[in-house]
């Protein structure tokens, strides 16, 4: 592992962005990939705890801005290839660029992404533990990639957050929380 661990986030819906947020906020180098083609743009959220009403598009814009403000790089590109690369991972985007990472978080519904890394499936979705860990070391799957039913934005965001905390704990070698306190 490099001195500064980095993470590749494949997918820019609530699941991927939430993982990216917690990782970037805690000083992991984060690259998020996706072209913001999430079904969130069809949604009017009336069920996201703490937000009375917001369009999915406004939610996405706020989320993207928040993740970028914490230092993550959002790439407007699609991932077309994923590979194991030593102890980490490499991906290729549709604009021909390649990136490598110590950790990878898959937050898309594209089975090919999971199959490319030999992620085990169960009932048509990635077979993960409650922190999004797959059978492949340092490879996580979150959100819609792990749930064929019970899809809600807040659940996907929670999945992403749980995966991020697990990665942060793995890096630290002890359980990590992301708590902030009022002055
Ligand atoms: C009509 C409709 C209304 C809805 N209303 C609500 C609602 O009111 N409340 C609610 O909680 N939920 C609602 N939902 C569900 C909500 O949209 C999902 O829960 C949420 O989008 C799931 O987030 P996710 O991050 O898991 O997956 P997604 O949002 O599907 O995110 C996956 C992302 O991966 C990207 N991607 C795909 N392929 C690639 C690739 N090759 N490389 C990189 N990125 C890629 C996609 O563009 C997408 O942005 C609604 C859904 C629909 C269809």
Question: Care to describe what's here?
Answer:
The chain has 183 residues and is of the alpha/beta class. It has one domain (6-172): FAD/NAD(P)-binding domain. Helix content is 28%, strand content 25%. It contains four helices and twelve strands. The chain has helices spanning 14-25, 56-69, 111-116, 153-172, and strands spanning 6-10, 29-33, 44-45, 54-55, 73-75, 79-85, 88-93, 98-101, 103-106, 121-122, 125-126, 139-141. The strands form four sheets. A five-stranded parallel β-sheet has the order 5-2-1-9-12, covered by helices on one side. Strand 1, helix 1 (14-25) and strand 2 form a beta-alpha-beta unit. The longest helix has 20 residues, at 153-172. The chain is globular, with a radius of gyration of 15 Å. It starts with 5 loop residues before the first strand and ends in an 11-residue tail after the last helix. 41% of the residues are buried. The model has no long low-confidence stretch (mean pLDDT 96). It binds flavin-adenine dinucleotide. The site of flavin-adenine dinucleotide has 33 residues, from helix 1, strand 3 and helix 4.
